[in-house]
Amino acid sequence: MSEPVVIFLNLRRTHLEHSAAIEAAHRLGYGVALIADTVPAGLPDRIVRVVHQVDTYDQTAVDGAVEAIVAAYSVAGVVTWSDRDVETVSRIAERLGLAAPSVAAARIARNKYLMREALAGHPDTIPRFTRVTTWEELVKAVDDVGFPAVLKPTSGSGSKGIFVLRDKEQLRGAFDALMHYTRPEVDRVFLDNPNELILEEFLAGTEHSVEGFVSQGDIVIAGITDKQTIEPFRLELAHTFPSLLPADVSARVHQLTRTVITAIGLDNCTFHLECMVSPDGRARLVEIAARVGGDFITSHLVGLATGNPFAENVIRVATGQRPELGGGQPLYAGVRKIMADRPGVLVGLDGLAEALTVPGVRHVVLERPMGTLVKLPPADYMSSTVGAVLAVGDGADRVHDSLVRAVNAVRVGISEA
């Protein structure tokens, strides 16, 4: 039998992110067995031992790939890097006797309605909410939830499909847009619950995420990330790690995290919890995911700030080991996205050399190839993010200034479609 491998179910979309994960497995002595819909060019074949390119929404095809891997390799763990495969990972792990959340817990972590239902005994941790599948249900739900409110899919991710509603006049347009968007033929992430929405109380305050691990029942928090979003669709624009929240408020966020994880029953996984902190310091849940945080938070920011690469601990937990977090005084690390301001075709990205000379900047990332058709929300929630800048500094204000300078140096070229 050859060296042990960890099964990766799909990869993050950028080379910078997925390379961090692959190299982490290698540093810990594992090869990678990749099962993916699409396979990026240039994967390191001395680390990625085998690739099965299949439709990962097809459970039979995934099972066949797993059987082939098990026949040839000693499988030490299975892990995914995005929401859509969380339940499949739990199903594979259950079959192979590997570390992962239970299938039931994974299902709750993939559905915002189910996770709020799981926390019904802790009403102080969640907003008022109602499940919505029809126009009539939405009209009735407004009476229970009130305005302002948020309407969104129960199983979306990456800020897809979030509508902030201020009055009844905005209901119909948001509902119709989401009924169109949450069809499997538009996005296959909605195969299991098409046209299922949640209307919930709008939470005012600052937005944050908690990065960490649950290992053999122990909750290990690596830190809190401060987030910046843009209206009206709550798209995530920038992140800074670690948080600038006061110690007492951070403690409330930590307690919220422990309450949520315990109520859902998550174990043996990485988690990424998003929450809102109100002006009076109250922390309430937005959602929790049983996987890493995206937008370079866990692939880069945590490691750049702390010196403890996050991806290694993802692999440790997926292979039944405990995470290892070192001490020491952290730096600050941040990311800010390069956004298109209008729809069209991406034809250029100028000013990269200038951006790279800004002190503190570590990476400037192109996330969309030239020729990409760019759309703005609500037509599309992803393509308007064309790149990102990552920076490090000895203070959050210095990181913010570096990121703003670098992003402002970049000029996005968009031509008419």
UniProtKB/TrEMBL annotation:
Annotated ATP-grasp domain residues: 116-319
Keywords assigned by UniProt, alphabetized: ATP-binding, Ligase, Nucleotide-binding
Tagged with keyword Translocase: no
Keyword Cytoplasm among record annotations: no
A molecular-function term among this protein's GO annotations: ligase activity
Signal peptide limits: none
Gene3D superfamilies cross-referenced by the UniProt entry: 3.40.50.20, ATP-grasp fold, B domain (3.30.470.20)
Entry protein name: ATP-grasp domain-containing protein
